[in-house]
Amino acid sequence: MSKTTIPTGGITADAINATLIADDAISDEHLDATAITGHTALAAAPAGTDEFLISDGGVLKRLDASYVGETNEPYFLATGNGTQSLTEDQNTTIQYNTLRDSLDSASGYNTSTYTYTVQTGGAGFWYLAAGNYVQDISQDKQVDIQIHVAGSEFFVSRHKPGNSIHQFLQVFGIHKLAVGNAVLVKIFHNDNSARNAVNNQNNAFFGGFRIKSL
User: DSSP state, 192?
Assistant: First the structure.
């Protein structure tokens, strides 16, 4: 019997395997929608290592889901648990010493140094934000909240109240971060004596998340 002759009774179930199908022989006319719909639905956002099959200029390639859109990871959110004294005419690092709801996807936040350090795989454009409540700022005195990256001040929100007042400060921005960059928050004031920052989960926060990888 020749190799092209179909035996009596036809082809038995599961007789055709990959060794009997020519390379590049499966085309659109041989596919049906059930090639997709017949499989179990994922029913969740794909993980970064999940894979798609695409045509790249006519060449079939696999593509990790991490390259399709963004997951806004890594991320972190910290707060504090006490009142902190702020020395006059000095930048004071704010003691966000508690992770809020354990939000630190890449384990980059240090609750002892109040610093987030970008971990391997975390480089990219980040949204960063911080807030704090400072007590008893005198009229026309200056109080700043600042986000510092790699030892330099990048974002500043400055306030000079018209009356003596408790002041809630916020600062935020988008910044390109590299692996190893350390991010922290400082507050400056030039009032006549020390003032207090209220570091608790209702009045203080420091966090961020990556919006686009490099």
Answer: S
- How far apart are the C-alpha atoms of 45 and 131, rounded to whole Å? 31
Q: Write down the pTM of the prediction.
A: 0.73
129 domain-assigned: yes
Contact 22, 37 (CB under 8 A): no
**Looking at the chain, which runs of residues are DSSP E strands?**
51-56, 59-64, 75-79, 82-86, 92-93, 98-104, 109-110, 115-117, 124-137, 143-149, 152-159, 165-177, 182-189, 195-199, 205-213
Same domain? For 105 and 188 the reply is yes
**Domain assignment of residue 205, yes or no:** yes
- The pLDDT tens digits for 146-203 are 999 999 999 999 999 988 899 999 999 999 999 999 999 999 999 989 999 999 998 9
Measured on CA atoms in the order 83, 85, 86, 92, is the torsion positive or negative? negative
Q: What CATH number is attached to the domain comprising 184?
A: 2.60.120.40
CA distance 121 to 213: 9
Nearest one of 214, 8, 46 to 123, comparing CA atoms: 214
For residue 197, the enclosing domain spans 75-213
**H or E element at residue 74:** none
Residue 85 falls within a domain, yes or no? yes
